[in-house]
Amino acid sequence: MKQGSLDHQDLPNWANRFLEWYCADELIDEIQGDLLEAFYYRKQTYGLRKARWWFIWDVLKFFRPSSFRKRSFNSIPIAMFKNYIVVSLRNFRKQKGYSFINLSGLVAGIAACLLISLHVLKELSYDNFHPKAESTYRVVMDMYGNGQLKVKSAPVYPAVAPALLAEFPEVEMVTRILPFGGGVYSVKTASGTLVRYNEEHAVLADANFFEMFGFELIEGDKREALNEANRIVLSESAAARYFGDKDPIGQSIYWRGTRELMVTGVFKDFPENSHMKFELITSLKSWNGYEDWPNNWGWYDFYTFVKTADNVDQETLDARLETFLDGKKAEMYEKYNAREVLWTQNIRDIHLYSEGLGWDMGENGGADQIYFLSVIAALILIIAWVNYVNLATARAVKRAKEVGIRKVVGAYRSNLLLQFLVESFLYNLFAVLLAGLLVALAVPYINGALEFTLDRHLLLSTEVLSGLLVMIIAGSLCSGLYPAFVLTSFQPVKVLKGKIYKRNGSFGFRQVLVIFQFTASITLILGTFLVVKQLNYMRNQELGINIDQTLVIHSPSSGRDEEDLENRLKLFKEELNATPGIAGFTLSNSVPGIENFFISGYTSKHYPNQLRDIYRMYIDENFFDQFEIDLIAGRSFDKNLKTDTAAVLLNLNAMNHLGFNTPEEAIGEKVNPGNEQSWNIIGVVENYHQASLKEDLDPIIFFYNPNAGNYYSLKLSGSSLGSIMDDVEAKWDAIYPDNPFDYFFLDERFDRQYKSDEQFNAVFIGFAALAIFVACLGLFGLVSFTAEQSKKEIGIRKVLGASSNALVMLLAKDYAKLILVAIVLAFPLGYYWMSSWLNNFAYQTNIGAGIFIFGGSLMALIAFLTVSFKSFSAANNNPVNVLRDE
């Protein structure tokens, strides 16, 4: 008898039983006896608690292959399991049509999930690579006037960073980024060739930039590279552009023609999953007035990042920041009834959760799209599993005899359940493998067509592989359990007599599944129509400005001095006037489609003690005429009137923003009355859309500056645009040899604002089509189920003279009711979703009854064609073949 049979209440019995389970019979007596003796000895010497722990430890130490019991496995379960696989594969081959439909639905659903997972993983990975990313925050600011939130600003004041470092012990490091490093950079080669580029992704930053962030500096010292004025670091790509294979360290590069900068470092190109996209970074100390910034609480153009000590709670930090500015700007707040509140964003949240923040760097804020796409992917996958359930139960009648015979020869219900779960597992396994292969092949084409940057290597990531494993298991259970229970519930006697179900038109689980499928599909159809309609609405809406046939050139920034640039501008205008095909020229600091960073607070007689935020535009006298912006009252700028340098025009929004009721009332009044610097209002113009129709109309104040602007806008006429462009470029190169001819067409640039919406539209349409396809497969399965059940009834009716059309209507009427119920459920759901989505746009199309009528009709038509296809097939069967067994 084994020692283990000697029970003792103090012994950890579970460990003793575990030892008996794994230990070989020829070793158990010796090992167990030694352990029990040691247990009793330790109990007396060290106490019961330690003796129990030592016993458990000894049992675990002996758990090794040399101690394992040699087990003889029963070959019957293994053989049965092999049989399940063989039968499942045989059924796949035997029922090729059903197998193809099943796999098509599952592959479509899983492929949709995989594609969206690749996109979601990429979006969620933004800025995760920074050291201590969980403790790195961007400080942003809410700005209030009269107790109302006016604007949410991503940049803040330059004095914020040093003040936080000095007054917040939990803040370990601060870094500022100033996004005004753009302009022409140039290098003269040994042969005398001038290499110059107009750089948009150029900034100025504090010396500890590369200590704060996880960007790799591959040449230079990250502590020294930006610690002095007139130092610059370049990306690998920028270094190759300017210096080729030559070592750039120590070389000179000129900014805007006159500012010499020394290259002190080269950094690896920023990764795709960074919200920052910089290629040239200049020392912030290079900016004039740098020494005064610790006391500058008025210029809010600085992106400010802080790194805190470990375990600092973000909510606690934000609570302290909420009142931080009250002590710094109390006098200004009291005078203008204003207030500003600082708060933080974790660096990992910036890309997805910056919706509504003004003057942000890059295109951030896509959390809503991620949410919608994830919901769509989940819906398609669920529809695919529902489709499998419907098809599996539709086949139940054909497999009833197989189940009956297995039960007669002794199969238990658990054996049959396992068999059908194995079949479901194989379907899901094959679907995952095929979907993975399909997605891997499709990703390059999707990236090319939609300008995405999906990475198919992520298919082998731990997250995706784990998700696929869960998907296989969950899919096998979710889609396999119900059909398995249905099939195993058949009674052998009735099955073998051919008596299984009686069709009575009852409302069952399969009907609920079909309603769910089509409710989801109709909702997606409605959403697709609305997305297309809203995008067309924004594209075709009047902008209040004519941007057609407008060539925009980045103004030159490289020159000896301001006078030199002014003289060359005069010459360039003269050359353009003599160029055929040039119908007009104007300059401005911004153009439609380009975010305007220039904003200031102004007072009026209606708001003498309140700063009203208004965007600034600097233009010449031709701006309004060339862009066909209507003048409502007053006059435009006149180059012959020197007093116009102290004059301004307002658009309607700015007029209302300053408290004037009519344009006529505003004419002759002043902006900032009573201040040292005030301006006469000489005109009011119509509003126009500076940004896309997703944003509201901006209040804009226009200043006269005929010699300076960031953009030169040329109105072209005629059809030979190529030759006109060649002429303009030739004149440009002759007058501005030190500045690149960098241009774009304004209408194309404006439309780029809708790029993400177009991508979302294309993805939405594709996934909606997938959902409809998979849902129709489910409907096909349920029609097949009904036709199989009713084949004898159909045969009898046909013998008695029923027409094929009448039989089709007999089969289709129940499904017409299901589709009608789905439409009734989908309409309010779709309306709620569409209304919520439209709230993201300042200018919205109307939802309208047409979307519901067309969407419901389209789904009804698709469903009718699906039902009719199978119904006609059943109705045209020879009744002799159906009734010959009766």
List the topology elements:
Layout: H1 13-22, H2 25-46, H3 48-61, H4 75-94, H5 96-124, E1 136-145, E2 148-153, H6 160-167, E3 171-178, E4 183-188, E5 194-199, E6 202-205, H7 209-212, E7 217-219, E8 231-235, H8 236-243, E9 252-255, E10 259-267, E11 280-283, E12 303-308, H9 314-321, H10 330-336, E13 338-346, H11 367-394, H12 396-408, H13 413-450, H14 462-488, H15 492-496, H16 509-540, E14 550-554, H17 562-577, E15 582-588, E16 599-602, E17 612-619, H18 623-626, E18 631-634, E19 647-651, H19 652-657, H20 663-666, E20 670-671, E21 679-685, E22 700-704, E23 711-716, H21 721-735, E24 743-745, H22 746-751, H23 755-789, H24 791-799, H25 804-838, H26 848-875, H27 879-883
Parallel strand pairs: 6-11, 8-10, 17-22, 19-21
Antiparallel strand pairs: 1-2, 1-12, 1-13, 3-6, 3-12, 4-5, 4-9, 7-10, 8-11, 9-10, 14-23, 14-24, 15-23, 16-17, 18-21, 19-22, 20-21
Give your account of this protein's structure:
This protein is an alpha+beta fold and 886 residues long. It contains 27 helices and 24 strands. The strands form three sheets. Strands 1, 2, 3, 4, 5, 6, 7, 8, 9, 10, 11, 12 and 13 form a 13-stranded mixed β-sheet that branches. Strands 16, 17, 18, 19, 20, 21 and 22 form a seven-stranded mixed β-sheet that branches. A hairpin with a 2-residue loop joins strand 1 (136-145) and strand 2 (148-153). Helix 11 (367-394) runs parallel beside helix 23 (755-789) and helix 16 (509-540) runs antiparallel to helix 23. The chain is globular. The protein starts with 12 loop residues before the first helix and ends with a helix. Mean pLDDT is 86; it is low at 1-7 and 502-506.
